[in-house]
Amino acid sequence: MATQKKATLTLDGKTVDFPVESGSIGPDVVDIRSLYGKTGAFTFDPGFLSTGSCKSAITYIDGDKGELLYRGYPIEQLAEHCDFLEVCQLLLTGELPNEEERKQFAGIIQNHTMVHEQLIRFYSGFRRDAHPMAVMVGVVGALSAFYHDAMDISDQQHRDISAYRLIAKMPTIVAMAYKYGIGQPFMYPRNDLDYTSNFMHMMFATPCETYKPNPVLTRALDRILILHADHEQNASTSTVRLAGSSGANPFACISAGIACLWGPAHGGANEACLKMLQEIGDVSRVGEYIKRAKDKNDTFKLMGFGHRVYKNFDPRAKLMRETCRDVLNELGLNDDPLFKLALALEKIALEDDYFIEKKLYPNVDFYSGIVQHALGIPTQLFTGIFALARTVGWIAQWNEMISDPEQKIGRPRQLYVGAPRRDVAPKGKA
Ligand code: CMC
To answer: Atom 52 of ligand 1 has which residue's CA nearest to it?
Structure first.
């Protein structure tokens, strides 16, 4: 029988052992849950560089190899053989659906695409120039006020209904945020269309003109959704889990995830990356921007480069670059200056010592902005599309957490560096 691995820590002359656990793949973890009880000390790991926060069976990343698996399946195979709704089923249930299950799930999602008529009024409370992510944080959180019928988070059926509602309504909510911003009437969903074509219809049709989905472009958007569907314990997913650990309802938790995703170091990077490419403007200026990215005294970073986990090519970036070529080809934009600029920037950065030494490679956001731009999606909406796609990952992770018998409210500790105890001087006696 294999002996249990252990890690030994010596602190103030006292030696204590901690069990080491192995996952199905990936690095071992030292289980330090008993550390405080045994030693009176906490660990200190701001940014969670070496901390696993949960057990999960959903997504696996090998950052050194540049590998991403959803429920064990490589992202490349899923992007080639599956559509987004099949990937949603995989993430939610652990298995790819058979034909009957696929149709059944698509039918359920189609039946939940409309939002409550009263929710539509929320939009008019926002300024027309509001960022779509600001609108989404508010509107998705507001869903909590509409579904009292399924708010018991200890009931698996209630959790399932919330998952279906969120996955089905998110495209409607994102498209409405877009339509509101440009002053066009909202388009109701069309349940005769598949998930991604329906989203494009709600985005690009008007009451005066139907939108004819182009299969190459629809497939490209569907692929964007697949590539962004889940990514292990990233900042927004950890936010959803932490919010959910208190027992908060799923709509409130997903709204918290959207707020976190908005930041430029996370989901906001696709928007920031496209803006950066537009600002660079020409291949002749690439050197100047690479220099700035390397300058310690300059806050500028090469957007779409670098990743906390990938120290090799982000596999999603490779797929996104292919999709980018397909879309530009289909639209007759082979000479697209932004794409050419992105290729040149990527090449120069990958040959530069600074980027090689720090293992900074293009991430998914480097090319997704160009694809979305070519699809006619406005820059401000890029992160909204990311949120649409990531909703299934957030809800799968939230569900996994709630079903975990070991689940506890998330409550990190701290290294206090403020004033030690002191007394308030009584007034008039100072
Ligand atoms: N350009 C220039 N230098 C960089 C970059 C970059 N894009 N990314 C990291 N570095 C440097 C950084 O300054 C640091 O240098 P030093 O060791 O001298 O202090 C070193 O590389 C390590 O970086 P870090 O910031 O400590 O790494 P991190 O794991 O904390 O941050 C990151 C990862 C993604 C936030 C960061 O690489 C970044 O800000 N990239 C640009 C934004 C971006 O593209 N974000 C999208 C991430 S992928 C989509 C998603 O999951 O949301």
So the answer is: 266
